[in-house]
Amino acid sequence: MSGWIVWEAIERLTAPPEVQSGPMMLIAFVGLAANLLSAWSLMKQGDVHGNLNLRSAYLHILGDALGSVGAIAAGVVMYFFGWYAADPIISMIVAPLILKSAWGVLSHSVHILMEGTPRELDQIQVKAALEQIPGVLDVHDLHIWSITSGMDSLSCHLLVQEGEDGQNILQEAIHRLERGFGIRHSTIQVETERIKHSELH
Fold first, then answer.
1. Residue 142: helix, strand or coil by DSSP?
2. To 5 degrees, how large is the angle CA 75–CA 37–CA 59?
3. What is the pLDDT of residues 98-157, one digit of tens each?
4. pLDDT per residue as tens digits for the range 32-79
5. What is the pLDDT of residue 86?
6. Which of 188, 192, 194 shows the shortest CA–CA distance to 176?
7. CB within 8 A of 41, min separation 6: which ones?
8. Distance between CA 169 and CA 141 in Å, rounded?
9. Where does the chain have alpha helices with state H?
10. Angle (nearest 5°) at CA 66 between 62 and 67
11. DSSP conformation class of 192
């Protein structure tokens, strides 16, 4: 869409059409007010930073608002100076800004779909927190990924000392993951030194 906006702007720049700047500014002001109201409502009622769906909607609204600001600026220039090239020039300025916001949402979505480790979590810190549990000898096969925006998942194996209560250690591991890292969906396998897995090649 940003590319299409720039393409259309280049065509209008070569032969700028005469624009009724007065009605243009009026409609842009109404659109700006509606977008700002919608953005305020989303920020008040939801998590526009942690929830990818709300963030996408929020950025879309901000993009519309930015377009309205650009239309108002172009309208002012055309109304007072009669310079109709301002409209396509403003469009070419706004389009890359919209693209930048959209790219951030797209890259975040692809990261989730590819089951990448959430950017806000440090896997080394998570492993260290689990290894500090009394009775835990080792943490291996640790994997952390996002099921969806705001919902992280973890799986791992805990090697515990012989004679230790594996269920108590498991409960402590679940609590540490929830309290320290916000991970509420975990699959943890408790093992002793008698349990051996085949080596992965």
1. strand
2. 80
3. 787 777 777 777 777 777 778 788 899 999 999 999 999 999 999 999 887 678 899 999
4. 898 888 888 877 777 666 666 677 777 778 877 888 888 888 888 888
5. 81
6. 188
7. none
8. 17
9. 2-14, 21-45, 52-81, 86-113, 123-131, 166-181
10. 120
11. -
* Amino acid, single-letter form, for residue 67: G
- Residues facing residue 91 across a β-bridge: none
- Tokens of residue 185, six digits: 């969906």
**Cross-strand bridge partners of residue 148:** 151
pLDDT single digits (tens) 147-185: 876 788 999 999 999 888 999 999 999 999 999 999 989
Do residues 154 and 144 touch, judged by C-beta distance below 8 A? yes
Check: CB of residue 122 under 8 Å from CB of residue 93: no
Q: How far apart are the first and last CA of the chain?
A: 46
Tokens 């230790």 appear where? 164
For residues 99 and 133, the answer to whether their CB atoms sit within 8 Å is no
Say how many residues make up the chain: 201
Token pair belonging to 196: 């051996």
Residue 112 to residues 122, 148, 184, Cα–Cα distance (Å): 16, 7, 17
Q: Which two tokens stand for residue 164?
A: 């230790």
